[in-house]
Amino acid sequence: SFISHDWHDLTAPRVTELKARGVPILCWTVKSAEEEVQARQIADNITFEGYIPKECP
Questions:
Q1: Which residues, in sequence order, are CB contacts of 15 under 8 Å at separation 6+?
Q2: Considering the entire predicted model, what is its pTM?
């Protein structure tokens, strides 16, 4: 199982709880390098739009 969540709300308590339980966190839709930096602090995978990351971890 996993959840896919708006990247703007990745700090929501429920997302934090699920992450702590080992549930993979996916997020959408990241459109810049700045947004990517923030999203990668929590998300395990990201959906991008109009932006191509320089590196893929």
A1: 3, 5, 9, 25, 42
A2: 0.87
